[in-house]
Amino acid sequence: MYYDGIEKRKFIRVRFPCKILLHSFPEHSISTHTENISAGGVRVITGEKIEAGTVIGIEMHLKGNKIICKGKIAWVVDKKSPYRKGICYYDTGVEFCEIDDQDRNMIKVTIEKMLCSEK
After folding, report:
1. Which of 28, 37, 86, 119 is 20–30 Å from 7 (CA)?
2. CA-to-CA distance for 62 and 66, rounded, in angstroms?
3. What's the pLDDT score for residue 12?
4. Residue 79 and residue 2: Cα distance in Å, rounded?
C-alpha cells in the first residue's frame, strides 16, 4: 500500500486502550485491547492473523459501557517481535460496518472529552 502523506480519515482517532473481543469465527474469539480508536473503527494488535475483508463481531468496553457491533478488517501489517525470535504479531485496522448510531456517538463524545482534557 502506497502512503502519499495525506490523511484521508473521516474521523479523529485517539490513543485509548480499552478491552476488546474480536469474534472472527463462530466459536473463536481473540481478546486484546485497542491501540487507538475513532468513531469509524479501531486499531488492535493480535497474535493471530485475520485476513483483510473478513467481517467480525466486536465487543468493546468503553468507559463502563459495552458496545457490541460488527467490523470489517480493513488492513493487516505483519510485525516481528523485537523481543522473541520467530514470534509474529499483527497490527490490524478494523472499520465499524454495523454499529448503532448511539454507540458511535458515545465513541465520538468520549474522544472529544479526551481531546479537551489534553489541552
Report:
1. 119
2. 6
3. 75
4. 18
Place of cell 482534557: 117
The answer, yes or no, to whether residue 84 has pLDDT greater than 60, is yes
CATH 3.40.390.10 fits 19-118, yes or no: no
State how far the Cα of 109 lies from the Cα of 99, in Å rounded to an integer.
15
Question: Domain limits of the chain?
Answer: 19-118
Give the model confidence (pLDDT) of 24-68 as tens digits. 777 789 999 899 999 999 999 999 999 999 999 999 988 888 999
User: If DSSP codes are grouped into helix, strand and coil, which group holds residue 110?
Assistant: helix
pTM for the whole structure: 0.83
